[in-house]
Amino acid sequence: MKVSYNWLNEFIDLADLNPQDIGERMSRTGIEVDGVNALGTGLKKIVVGHVLTCEPHPDSDHLSITTVEVGEDEPFQIVCGAPNVAAGQKVIVALPNSRIAGNVKIKKGKMRGVVSQGMICSLEEIGFSNSVVPKEYADGIMVLPEEAPAGMDIVEYLKLDDPIIELDITPNRADAFSMRGVAWELAAVYNRQPNFDYTDITKYDGKDLAGAIDLKVADTELVPEYNAFLVKNVTVEPSPLWLQLRLMAAGIRPINNVVDITNYVLLANGQPLHAFDYDKLDHKVIETRLAKEGERIVTLDEVDRPLLDSDIVITDGEKPIALAGVMGGLDTEIDENTTNVLIEAANFEPIHIRKTARRNGLHSESSMRNERGINKATVAESGAFAAEMIADLAKGEVVEGSERVSAIDLTPVQVTTSLAYVNKRLGMDLSYEDIQQIFKQLQFEVAGNGDEFTVSVPSRRWDISIQADLVEEIARIYGYDKIPSRLPAVNAQNMGLTDWQAFKRRTNNQMLAEGFNQVIAYSLIGDNQTVLEMANAKPVALDFPMSDDRRFMRTNLLSALLEIVQYNVARKTSDVAIFESGRVFKWADADLPVDETHLAAVWTGNTQAKTWSHQAKAVDFYDMKGVVESILDSFNLDVAVAFEATSELADMHPGRTAKIYAVGQSDERVELGYIGQLHPSVADKYDLKDTLVFEISLDEIYALPKIDVKQSAIPKFPGSDRDIAILVSDQVTNADVMKTIQKASKGGILVDIEIFDVYQGENIEDGKKSLAYSLKYLNPQATLTDEEVSNDVARITEALTNELSAEIR
Known about the structure:
seven-stranded mixed beta sheet; alpha+beta; 19 helices; 809 residues
């Protein structure tokens, strides 16, 4: 919120305080100040000018040659490109050698051969944002009131030296979203008395609008209070300059005097208001209710919006004419032909307002305050204040009466606590007198003693309801900087890592040891950004995403990793090996989504670069498989790991992909993930060459049984090696052969199996392949005999022949 220092001085006397000091003090007491700046800082030699003549430029179809009185002995000739410049206007003039916004220097020069002694300025050129400039001046220069004195410094005339204090107000301090709220805050901080001009609403009591409007509130839980005031015979025109300047300084674009007054009251009191053109209400009815299925409304921004049954709407008895607390409807907007104005001052249920505003992307000054709460005690007063102000500035007549429905309880909230509770939480030794003084500054009534006291919280501080809230108020008004700093009296303990944390760290370290670089990708993705799913997972959508490309929680890790690889390859880093261990999210058969921890990696390019001694070697399936086996071996699993070829994964190469299973003692299988090469179409989509990936579930692996690894003594007895070569169908996998060998071997003397040759081609019939294995035997308790080894090899060859139809070579 942007707060004008000069305007704030009308509510509380701050003349003896520096705006910078005020900003620092507020930051130290709980409301962060982003900065204190005056719009006119840096402006130099910019004055009010009076355009005496205006003629078209002879060599241009859009330039004009003007003579402008600027308070000097002679008028200045200025060439101007604004389409709305005309003789008789009072304008903003930058003289030669002046400085405008952005520290731009204006010099005397020529434009199309004509001397120009300065520049006639728009509001943007003296520092105002285009978003707050009145629409009639958005494409041209600002026309000042006729009474503006020519030659007067524009900083002084427009009060651009007014320091603007920019507050970053958190949701729990919505009470400071108004000039009154900020004044109450400073009154407490500096122990001063604020001065407010309250509107007398007693003259409206007991009087209605004499049948001019029929007010209906369907549900007082959704609309606890609704007030309607009527102002007749208004003249809609631009607001006075002082009002426009206050709105622009606060970041609001002036529209017309009626709408500007509702925004002025919003800034002053923190109460959102809405003005309806009374004559556009077809049935002279105002009804609040939830929207019905199929209803629509065209809002003031000219967008046709579908409504949900959770949207609170204002209707004319039949159709919606406003989104309650968010934005009005186009059908009843105030325009230059409006003569009768109905003012709405209401309180709406915040949660419904927040959902409606965010779903429609309508984050306005009104919705922001309605979402976070308003002062319920000043709802009616703010409406009456606006009505009387409209009557004054728009030359209208207030109908002395109102229509009102209210179910609000304005009884002050009573919060009871004790001095011991406060001091224990703050780590201080405050006295009861200190507490009384703080609540006196806050202007909260307090009764009791140090053992127990009760604070009566006024309605303007609806954020205070429990003991902890009182402690916070005491701390910030007393001064956070006065709270002593000391370390807690606890014994330090080295808790170490949990089993799960150690497991994850060991996994990451193992991947780093394998030569992969760790990355951390964003957990939110957009629609259609997911490839390489481990399973058909239903993504978790956010109700209120930051943007459409961050609408869903990720269901796997590889989708984001591929984008990272693509980014690097596009920048000439062709050899990329990266991994991530992180959480993925999906809906399960429950009311809430679940998350799992996965490990995923991508490897593309070469495993070794070309050197003088050998050629470059591109990464292949077996390189990545070796990494996965190394990772799984590091877990010391008490299960067998199987890789089974699959063509079920659409985004993977059908002949170079395998699912990874853990196989237990009873042959029960747990799917851990998959490994393989990207499908060529997917690789092309990411501008990649042959690329290998894997993704496995760390949760599933962590749950598997483990074995305790013990150091064995160095064998005292020699081992023995035997080689065996077989001819099998090319459909038989190495895993099949290994499993058959392990199953057939008896006695526990076969300690290792290594494949050392694979051959297909000449002298091997089609559909066959030759495999050669080295079998390593060892008995740690005794010397092996030739007979033991030969018998075991015989059992193995028999099993290979019978089970795999192998030919022993």
